Amino acid sequence: MNVQANTQPNVLADVRNGVLHVTINRPDKRNALNRATLDALRDVFAGAAHDAALHAVVLTAAGERSFAAGGDLREFDALRSEADAAALFDHAAAALDAIRAAPVPVIAALNGTALGGGAELAVACDYRVAAAHACIGFVQATLAITTGFSGSADLFALLGPARAMRVLAEARLMDAKEALALGLIDDVCEREQSLDERVAQFAQPFAGRAPHVVRAMKQIAAAHRHALAQAMRDAERAAFVATWTAPAHWEQAQKFLDRQRASTTDPKA
């Protein structure tokens, strides 16, 4: 299957030197993850499973401002019932599961800020390499919700339960150096270094091995990850449904949307 055949407007994909480069292409929306973008990501990564020549996948986004500004709250604002919330979780989780299931290592190239669902997208990848100015934040609690894209299992696996729970509760933006020290990010560009250059350096150990060997390594890692994630999935889904449908969430969501509208009508806002 040709991965390029799956390219959709919200997501671009091309293979270069045995590496699949996937780019979220909504820079005017700060690369927010709406349903169409999640579908496109799932399709591209599903297609990658059929390319036996791949050594790695790099997931990034257009522009230098945002890797992904979380879920597209303008689109999701109409989803109010428990059934709606459960369907939203399942839809997003399916996209992230396609990334987790990629048969080769997936490197998130954080070109800018990864917020909320965007942070969940980043930790669904095997590694995260950040531009010097990039930031990451599990800020879901500021909207009075828990993780809605199935990212808690990844976060807890990376940091351990105690540190992960504190990160979720603090709900703040971390710069790349702090996230590196914490273990959320694996590598950070030097100030004058391009992200493409740093990612290429990071991917070199995989690019230098035979594809079937890389796939065997990933198969072992994926088995370990799957066992941990499945044990948490039902609990994470139930927690998201409960918090998404609570009045406190809709109060905070309305404030967020009001601020967004104000910023688009008043450049000084």
* Strand order, sheet with most strands: 1-2-3-5-7-10
Gyration radius, in Å: 18 Å
CATH classification, class level: Alpha Beta
Helix fraction by DSSP (H/I, runs of at least 4): 40-55%
Organism: Paraburkholderia piptadeniae
Protein name: Enoyl-CoA hydratase/carnithine racemase
Family: Belongs to the enoyl-CoA hydratase/isomerase family.
GO molecular function: catalytic activity
Give a short summary of the structure.
This protein is an alpha/beta fold and 269 residues long. It has ten helices and ten strands.
Keywords:
disordered N terminus, alpha/beta, 10 helices, 6-stranded mixed beta sheet, single chain, 2-enoyl-CoA Hydratase, Chain A, domain 1, 269 residues, ClpP/crotonase-like_dom_sf, globular, 51% helix, 4-stranded mixed beta sheet
Protein described:
- This protein is of the alpha/beta class.
- Helices cover 51% and strands 15% of the residues.
- The protein has a single domain, classed as 2-enoyl-CoA Hydratase, Chain A, domain 1 (Alpha-Beta Complex), CATH 3.90.226.
- The protein has a six-stranded mixed beta sheet, with helices on both faces.
- Helix 1 packs parallel to helix 3 and helix 3 runs antiparallel to helix 9.
- The chain is globular.
